[in-house]
Amino acid sequence: MPTLEQSRHLVTEIPGPASLELAKRRSAAVARGVRSTMPVYAVRAGGGIVEDVDGNRLIDLSSGIAVTTIGNASPRVVDAVRGQVADFTHTCFMVTPYEGYVAVAEQLNRLTPGSGEKRSVLFNSGAEAVENAIKVARAFTRKSAVVAFDHAFHGRTNLAMALTAQSMPYKSGFGPFAPEVYRAPLSYPYRDRLLDKELATDGERAAARAIRVIGRQVGADNLAAVVIEPIQGEGGFIVPAEGFLPTLLEWCHQNDVVFIADEVQTGFARTGAMFACEHEGIEPDLICTAKGIADGLPLSAVTGRAELMDASHVGGLGGTFGGNPLACAAALATIATIESDELIERAQQIGRLMTERLFRLQADDDRIGDVRGRGAMVAIELVKSGGTEPDAELTNKLATAARAAGVITLTCGTFGNVVRFLPPLAISDELLTEGLDVLAGLLGEM
Fold it and tell me: Residue 388 is part of which domain span?
């Protein structure tokens, strides 16, 4: 296959005629509830570029929502999957096991925070990982209640929707949801400072607020687990104030509550560390991973302390496709690429480039209320000029204009006013800079 040219190039309007034709077929064949960010249909992707059916080359600042972290067609992954598919595609690990599953579990046990003995179990999606982590916590503690946080997103299955905070588009009309799920306030520095400046910078104080709510609404004696994204994803790329996560973890350990870190979006080098928990030196009891784990193939995992992971009865964990051999081969190649190509350091470089550019933009435009994130997981929160009122209309207008200009961008946030940047770590500085320049130019015209 020829190398995909790493340049933005538009030969038609977005969408082009071939994409419009496919859109007609889609409307007749695909359920209306499935939404797509871009109105184009991809045929090739790699590095920092996605090429559509009309020959347009688009700058990728989304990585398939943090999935193709090392690129859409990373050579080691391509070779590993080709080799595996020639041997066998499936036997089911619960029927005839194979080495790939074991090898991925070994790597996860090695890489995830914590020096003690660990175990892992493999699934297909982030939502599956979260639900199974809660099963493990309930089996271990013999308690049932679970606490999630404001602005959280944990998936689209029933229990995961119960944990998720935002109604539209994730929960509305799909209830009733799983019981014994409660919510506590997150540390959200940009918004917290509107209430209390100290609360915005003092993570311990923000954690104490959450713990008070948990005590009143649930009680530690009833609580099996606390589940939290170390940096929230769909909720707005919210980075809690320093000290929030360690204080919460300490309280969990003091009260026999399992601390579950949902690293589905933040894991595997995305934030400039292998896992976002490492930025504050915390060791979760259980950690959920997916998305970037296998460079686009469906795979997820729960990894944790051996005594927790072994609490479930034999046969209590599993699934027909969990740890599919093709996905395991991709995961092993992904991990090898991250380590051999020093992609953690690359994520840090990308983070510096993005934040420096966005901070300069913020200095000239008060509609950028906040610039935040870690590594190659950065966002801007857009507000109405002269204040802090969320501006979802401007956000959607900017993202739509960027897409029409050939830059794939995503929005998020409880208030719909956050533009998030998740470039693949294989992107060049030149493409990344061009993508940000396009957004800056468009924002200046609005």
Answer: 17-60+343-445
